[in-house]
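Minutes, project check-in
Item: structure for the 253-residue chain
Input as provided by the requester:
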Amino acid sequence: MTVRPAGQKAPVIAVDGPSGVGKGDVSQFLASSLGWCIMDSGALYRILAYKALEIGVRTDDVSRLCELAADLEVSFAIDGDALQVIYEGADIGDAIRRENVGVAASQLAVWPEVRRRVVRAQRRQRRSPGLVADGRDMGTEVFPDADLKLFLEASVEARANRRFQQLKALGFSVSLGSLLQSISRRDEQDRTRKHSPLIAAQDAIVINTTRMGREAVRSRVLEIVRDKALDRLAQNKPVARASQATHALPSPH
């Protein structure tokens, strides 16, 4: 394992893009392959939304939201084919994936004061041996100095179908049409908001996953990681080929 000089920040791979492009799968695959920490940055906004909905705080009540965000602490762990999101001692990963929580998270994320407090919590996740950060503004706002920036994209139709299949597998009842409308609305909100809009960083590598299978996407990102020599920072193990890690990780489709 390559050891960085004392005082140098832990390396970061930023994986950005809208919902349903396969960011979670790519991030888990890279974190497992490299032996790095992982962060689902959107989970922090979803946890804040989940808490606000639970206690009746409106998504436009900036003062109360900032109070809740000030103590926002979360940890992540890959458990088999699932990403555990630990908050207040419990894994609430499934609960925060509900569509109403996602909509509320997108609404409260427009407030710059709220975003600043959440960003602080996100940056605290950066630790050795390295961090794979899954989000929408990881390479532009949270970690502009990331060692590698990936931006995944796909058609709205493909993303809605992937989300539909994911929610069905979790036992939720939802219509494909409503998901398509919801994702389109959230895309518009995220891309047009004044602060930290959803855009690819100028130095990001863009990958369109619309017609790519999971193995093809994984192979492409591993190729990029090796080109950047980040595989040399792997924690005491060689970086696995995409096919070798398939059994341990979930599909985004």
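Outcome recorded: The beta strands are 12-16, 37-40, 75-79, 82-87, 90-91, 131-135, 148-153, 205-208.
No further action items on this chain.
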